[in-house]
Every structure is written in C-alpha cells, then in structure tokens.
C-alpha cells in the first residue's frame, strides 16, 4: 500500500483574500507568524497521532513564518510549500531567491516547482528544479508517489554553496523561463538546462520544494508573464 500524502492547509481565508499571488514585502498575517493561506504538503504519510506540526513555534516540526522580505522555512520532513493563487500558464518566468543557512554537512535539495496540479489530491503532479550544497542541480517530475528524472544531478559553476568561509548564508536565484517552444532553467541568471516545452509540465501552481532538515530563507517568489 502506498503511503498517503499529508496536506496541511494553514488557515482558510475569505475568498477575496486569495485574489493575488503572495507578495514577499506584504506578508499575510503578522511578521514572524505562519503565513495565513499558504499550504504545506509532506511527501510521506503520517498517522493521525504523529502528524507533523507547522507553525511559528520553534518546537514545531516545520518552522514556517513571514520574515519580510519573504518567508523563512526550517524543515523536519520534506515537502512542498505553496500559495494557491501563485499560478502560471502560457509564457512566463517563475523565480525564487533562496538563502541556504548552515546545512551542517547535509546535502539535501531545495528549490522551485512549477506546473502544480491536484496538489491537495491523490493525483498531485508537479515538475521541480532543485539544487544542493554539493554544487549540483536536478530537474524532476513527481506524480503521486512516483518520480521521473527530466535532467539528472549535474554540477554547475553558478551555484553558490555554503562553506567554511560563508559568513551567513549562500544565496541562489532559481528561475524557469517558459516560451512557446522551450523551457530554460537558470541559476543566478546563468543557463543550466534547456528542454522542449512538450517535455515539461508548465501550467499550474508555482511553489517551493524544501527537503529534510534544511534552514532556508525565501527572499522572493515571483511569476512574470512574458
């Protein structure tokens, strides 16, 4: 039996509050509190007695708060973080600026996903563009509990990594530019990969994927129509 995927909707707002994409400079709710209408969905199933907690309390399994500009996430289990109104279709650029704090030797991945569909259901699917502190990136698709590699782990010189000389955090901008024929994946404005649009799931929710036990500040998450 495959594990059930757990979805946590943080707080439901009135419909009018979902009318725009999230703004990193205008938090929903109070700063240093959990963003009101974002959703967190974990990869693995959990029993009703062991469901992970998401909140602003440092004892929560996932610490997720508004921290202007942007949001701060410290994970326990791996999962996706998204605002239901952060959607894109047609031709567009989706990007996020992520600051990785000391991973303490862990080489877990984090980054951006696009094309999210049925994210609160059993048939969820999305394509994701991740990097890790070894200086490599990956492009993959998740459909329910199955994954398909679109581009394998590959080193890239443009990736900023956290090392012994890093004073605070390692910042990286991940961007996906969707044109009518191709999809270009960029790291700090340097091309990392280019795939035919027919091979990439592009229309749907844009959000974040953060794997296990990482401390990440999300300075920006934006979609711009091209």
- Spans of at least 5 consecutive residues with low confidence: 1-5, 11-18
Number of E-type strands:
17
Portion in helices = under 10%
Give a short account of the largest sheet.
9 strands, antiparallel
Can you give a write-up of this model?
It is a single chain. With 226 residues, this protein is an all-beta fold. Helix content is 0%, strand content 47%. The chain contains no helices and 17 strands. Strands 1, 2, 6, 7, 9, 10, 11, 12 and 16 form a nine-stranded antiparallel sheet that branches. An eight-stranded mixed sheet has the order 3-4-5-17-8-13-14-15, with no helix packed on it. β14 (182-187) and β15 form a beta hairpin. The chain is globular, with a radius of gyration of 16 Å. It starts with 6 loop residues before the first strand and ends with a strand. Mean pLDDT is 91; it is low at 1-5 and 11-18.
Structure summarized in a few sentences:
By secondary structure, the protein is mainly β. It has strands at 7-9, 39-42, 54-55, 62-66, 71-74, 79-82, 87-88, 92-100, 110-117, 125-132, 136-143, 146-155, 170-178, 182-187, 190-196, 204-210, 215-225.
């Amino acid at each position: 039996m495959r594990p059930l995927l757990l979805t946590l909707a943080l707080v439901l707002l009135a419909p009018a509050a979902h009318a725009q994409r999230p703004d990193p400079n205008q938090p929903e709710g109070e700063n240093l509190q959990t963003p009101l209408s974002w959703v967190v969905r974990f990869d693995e199933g959990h029993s009703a007695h062991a469901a992970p907690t998401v909140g602003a309390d440092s004892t929560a399994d996932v610490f997720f708060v508004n921290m202007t500009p942007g949001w701060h996430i410290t994970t326990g289990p791996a999962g996706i973080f998204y605002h239901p109104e952060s959607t894109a279709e047609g031709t567009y650029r989706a990007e996020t600026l992520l600051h990785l704090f000391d991973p303490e030797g862990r080489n877990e991945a984090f980054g951006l996903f696009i094309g999210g569909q049925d994210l609160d259901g059993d048939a969820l699917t999305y394509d994701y563009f991740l990097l890790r502190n070894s200086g490599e990136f990956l492009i993959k698709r998740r459909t329910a509990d199955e994954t398909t590699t679109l581009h394998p782990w590959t080193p890239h010189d443009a990736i900023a990594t956290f090392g012994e000389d890093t004073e605070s955090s390692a910042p990286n901008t991940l961007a996906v530019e969707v044109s009518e024929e191709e999809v270009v994946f960029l790291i700090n404005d340097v091309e990392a990969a280019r795939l035919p649009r027919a091979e990439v799931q592009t229309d749907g929710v844009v959000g974040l994927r953060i794997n296990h036990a990482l401390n990440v500040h999300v300075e920006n998450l934006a979609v711009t129509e091209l």
